[in-house]
Amino acid sequence: MLNSSCKEFLTALSSGAPVPGGGGASAFCGALSIALGGMVCNLTLGKKKYADVQEDIRRMVDEAELLRHEFEDLVEADAKAFEPLSKAYGMPKNTEEELAQRTRVMEKCLQDACDVPLDIMDCCARAIALLEELSLKGSKIALS
Fold it and tell me: CA-CA distance, 73 to 86, in Å (whole number)?
């Protein structure tokens, strides 16, 4: 998903295709947000005014980079997890056996599709904590 251009991603997101969807869009927004946090870190590094927090800022640069990569991976993971679910919706349900099989497959696919959004929420919580700390220690010119 992320190997396409932003324009292609947005076009696919607005289409009737099952992926990308809300989870992938959320993870992409998370990646953008933490990337901006990384920018603030880099604007703060080496500034005399922020000499007392340089060690913290270096740590935050590394944490922001790791989170950005996690968010990027979650864009892809969401698409992988949701695609089987979209196919399961199309399974036949004309007989009792088909309905039972579809129900089993749907249950597994729904569980798998829920795992990634939970991971996205976890990354968001960690990103918010990092950005909150950065708002206190980072360059004030980049606060907005």
Answer: 20
